[in-house]
Every structure is written in structure tokens, then in C-alpha cells.
Design goal:
Elements lengths: L9 E7 L4 E6 L10 E6 L4 E5 L3 E9 L19 E6 L6 E4 L4 E4 L6 H4 L8 E6 L10 H18 L3 E5 L5 H11 E3 L4 E4 L12 H14 L5 E6 L6 E6 L3 E3 L8 E3 L6 E4 L4 E4 L12 E2 L7 E5 L6 H9 L4 E6 L10 H9 L3 E6 L12 H9 L2 E2 L5 H14 L3 H9 L16 H9 L1
Parallel strand pairs: 6-9, 6-10, 10-12, 12-13, 20-21, 21-22, 22-23
Antiparallel strand pairs: 1-2, 1-5, 2-3, 3-4, 7-8, 11-19, 13-14, 14-17, 15-16, 17-18
Helix pairs in contact: 2-3, 3-8, 6-7, 8-9
Family: Belongs to the asparaginase 1 family. GatD subfamily.
Keywords: ATP-binding, Ligase, Nucleotide-binding, Protein biosynthesis, Transferase
Pfam families: Asparaginase, Asparaginase_C, GatD_N
């Protein structure tokens, strides 16, 4: 293309051999992939690749230069606004296009927040820092521990109204649940937020989610670990889910997160900046900061499947795991041939917890014989707790004590509204649809 005067960041008109015409800006050529492909950023913000063999004509319409964005905190912040501290951990919400590889990668500079989302100047005085810069699937219990310790330090040293944590969405509910168990008392909420679509895309949900999360951190009456993400297909509602009740339920929709076995804790109407509580019971803001950040990495989450051999569970016993969260079928079952294996695990000091793959509803192991036998073998039922929340909780519990009976006692306590005595009828999506159709 160079012979035609086409350079990186040239604005061009491209006519294809089939008559289709494209207009856009030439993007840097990826180091990996087909080098005969011209990559254009179209006027609608999306990138398109065109193989050179399909190009009939190229006309240069103008030239652009890559200008580094000015970074820095806003200077027009209003006095008297609450303070909110941002922690960056990586993920799509803090992602940029890597033009060397053509991929999207995590990148978060806290100083860019105001320039990216100027609406925040009317909501809060922001301070920010990057704690990690990793994909959420690379998060480990060790990262949860570091995150909890840092949250404690920030509240003690800077006394913000709340903390917003930018986090990848794939494992956000694990981290939010983990922090809910680690943080026993807080002066304000810790609000996890993220984006299903990166900020360079026209349909990005990043700005709306950050605005909603900041409003929650600044104004909410509660002091819990929560997730603030899109609650509708449009850009109006952000729902606030308890970390211990939330789950990512869609791989790509912007409103991917749902509260399971519970209504959301609150909602934010973004255009009006209104925060409305949906549940009346919550942990209030405290004058104290009480955080227990230690987590065990000796816990596994295992999903039962038809025909699962006992060797699968034996592996964890032989590998020295101290806790096992099972995702059983229905009311909390595995095949009868595994009961003996579970009994050996418990006998050897492994805590075995039972959750349900159904997600909605609760474990009840007193109904069928297999459930009763598992109870007799020493399995701890997790009531209506989500498998991911149970995994985070058992990891935290075993970080506090190595005594098996004390760990079981602590696991059974309702520490962060992760279980409930009864499940609300309208907390199930089918019930909500039925009510709408009546």
C-alpha cells in the first residue's frame, strides 16, 4: 500500500472488487496474523480486515497522527463532594487494543478516569491506583488476600466514602464474594465493576458501569462488597448485586450479571443519578475497619457429572487439599458409588461442602437416600449458597483456622447474607416472567 501513499493512520476510501466501498483509518499492521490484510477502523468505531486480493482501488483522503492522550486528574472538581478511591486490577473495563498483536489487553492508568468519564466530576473527588494488571481468570486466592489487605489500608489511610474496584467480569463474582467474607466491618462499600465490551467499542458499557459504581461508593448507606453492572439492555439502569449472591450469567450481554436466590441490593438510575435500595437489610457503614485477609489455596470446586469416577475426588485427597466444594445435582446429590470416597475424604480431614448445580433453590439432603448417606458421611450442606460463593467462603474459612470442626462451624454461619432462611418467590427469573405475563 505504501506505493499508493497509504500510511498508518491515513484516512482512506477503499473500493473492493465486488463494488463495496469502505471508509476508515488505516490501523497498524498486527505482528501476528495475515500480513496481506489491511485493517481499517470504520467511522462507526469497529475494525474490519480486508485482504489485499479483494482491494480494487485505494484513495487517501487525509492523514492522522497518533497523539498520546493527555493524562491527569481533572481540575474542575466541585468542592464538598465525597471521595472515592479507585483500584485497578485489569480486565476489559481497563483494556486497550494492542496494535502489535491486534488483541485487546488489560491496561489501566488511574489518572485517565476523569478524562474518559467527565461526568464523574459532578459525583465525587477521585483518587486512583493500579493494584494488578491481570486478566480476571488469572486471579487467585493470593490476589484476594492482597486485595483485602489493600482495601483495609485505603480505608484506614485515606478514609474515602467508598472504593471502586475495576475488575475483569469473568471471575468478578468470585473476588467480590471473597472480599465480602474477608471484610467484617467497613466504613463504606467496596464496589466491583467492569465492562463486557472494551472502551474503544461504540457499544461499550464501561462508562455507565463506572458512573453507577461511583454513585454507589459515594452515596450508598451500606458497607458491603457488591457488584455494580448494567441491569438492562440500554444505558439507564445499573443493578447492585451482593458479591455473595452475584453470578455472571451471559458470556457477552452487557446485563450479564444477576442476583441468584435474592433480589439485587439496590439499583442506580444513571440519567437521574438516583440510588434506590431494593432490600431493607444490609450492613451499615461502620466507624471501624475489620478485615481478615488470609485465604487458603487448598480448596477445589468440583462439578459432578454422570459417570464421574471416584478417582476424580481421590485426586484431591491425595494432593493434600483441605476443602472440597461439590456442585451436586438437584437437591445436592452425586452418584451413590461416590459416597464411600466422600466418606474417606471426610475421615482424612477434608471438609466437603455440597452446593447445587441448579443455582436457584437450595440444597436439601434429607429427601433422598443418597443425600442422607452423604450427610451421614460428613458432608456440609451449603443451603442456598452459590457454588462460587461457597468456594470463596471455604477458602477464607480455612485461612482463619486449621481446626476442622471450628472451620465447619464458621462455614455454617451466615456471615455476609450468603444464605437465607427462605427464598423469595420473585428472586427466580421464571417467576418474574410469569408475573409480567399475567
Amino acid at each position: 500500500m505504501e506505493e499508493n501513499g497509504v500510511k498508518v493512520f491515513s484516512r482512506v476510501r477503499v473500493r473492493l472488487s465486488d463494488g463495496v466501498e469502505l471508509r476508515g483509518i488505516v490501523m497498524p499492521r498486527p505482528r501476528v496474523g495475515d500480513r496481506e490484510v489491511l485493517v481499517l477502523k470504520l467511522d462507526n468505531g469497529y475494525n474490519v480486515g480486508v485482504h489485499a486480493s479483494r482491494i480494487a482501488e485505494v484513495e487517501v483522503l487525509g492523514e492522522y497522527s497518533a497523539v498520546e492522550e493527555e493524562r491527569g486528574s481533572a481540575t474542575r472538581v466541585k468542592e464538598g463532594l465525597p471521595r472515592v478511591h479507585f483500584l485497578g486490577t485489569g480486565g476489559t473495563i481497563a483494556s486497550r487494543v494492542d496494535y502489535v498483536t491486534g488483541a485487546v489487553y488489560p491496561y489501566f492508568s488511574a489518572e485517565e478516569i476523569y478524562s474518559m468519564i467527565p461526568e464523574l466530576e459532578e459525583i465525587a473527588v477521585i483518587s486512583a491506583e493500579t493494584l494488578f494488571s491481570i486478566f480476571s481468570e488469572d486471579m487467585t486466592p493470593s490476589h484476594w488476600s492482597q486485595l483485602a489487605q489493600h482495601v483495609k489500608r485505603v480505608f484506614e489511610a485515606e478514609a474515602p466514602s467508598g472504593i471502586v474496584i475495576a475488575h475483569g467480569t469473568d471471575t468478578m463474582h468470585y473476588s467480590a464474594a471473597a472480599l465480602a467474607f474477608a471484610a467484617r466491618k467497613l466504613p463504606g462499600p467496596v464496589v466491583f465493576t467492569g465492562a463486557q465490551r472494551s472502551s474503544d467499542r461504540p457499544s461499550s458499557d464501561a462508562a455507565v458501569n463506572v458512573i453507577g459504581a461511583t454513585l454507589v461508593a459515594a452515596r450508598a448507606p451500606f458497607a458491603e462488597s457488591v457488584i455494580a453492572m448494567h441491569g438492562s439492555p440500554d444505558d439507564r439502569i445499573v443493578l447492585v448485586h451482593r458479591g455473595v449472591r452475584a453470578r455472571k450469567m451471559h458470556s457477552s450481554r452487557r446485563d450479564a450479571f444477576m442476583s441468584i436466590n435474592s433480589l439485587p441490593l439496590a439499583q442506580v438510575d444513571v440519567p437521574s443519578r438516583e440510588l434506590r435500595m431494593l432490600l431493607g437489610e444490609y450492613k451499615p457503614r461502620s466507624d471501624e475497619v475489620e478485615v481478615y485477609p488470609k485465604f487458603s489455596d487448598g480448596v477445589a470446586l468440583v462439578k459432578f457429572y454422570p459417570g464421574m469416577p471416584g478417582d476424580v475426588l481421590e485426586f484431591y485427597r491425595e494432593s493434600g487439599y483441605k476443602g472440597l466444594v461439590l456442585e451436586g445435582t438437584g437437591l445436592g446429590h452425586v452418584r451413590s458409588e461416590l459416597v464411600g470416597v466422600v466418606r474417606r475424604l471426610v475421615r482424612d480431614g477434608v471438609i466437603v461442602v455440597m452446593t447445587t448445580q441448579c443455582l436457584w433453590g437450595r440444597v436439601n439432603m434429607n429427601v433422598y437416600r443418597t443425600g442422607v448417606e452423604l450427610l451421614e458421611a460428613g458432608v456440609v450442606p451449603a443451603e442456598d449458597m452459590l457454588p462460587e460463593a461457597a468456594f470463596a467462603k471455604l477458602s477464607w474459612v480455612l485461612g482463619q483456622t486449621e481446626d476442622v470442626e471450628e472451620a465447619k462451624r464458621l462455614f455454617r454461619e451466615n456471615l455476609a447474607y450468603e444464605t437465607s432462611k427462605r427464598t423469595e418467590y420473585l428472586a427466580y427469573p421464571g417467576a418474574m416472567w410469569w408475573e409480567r405475563c399475567r
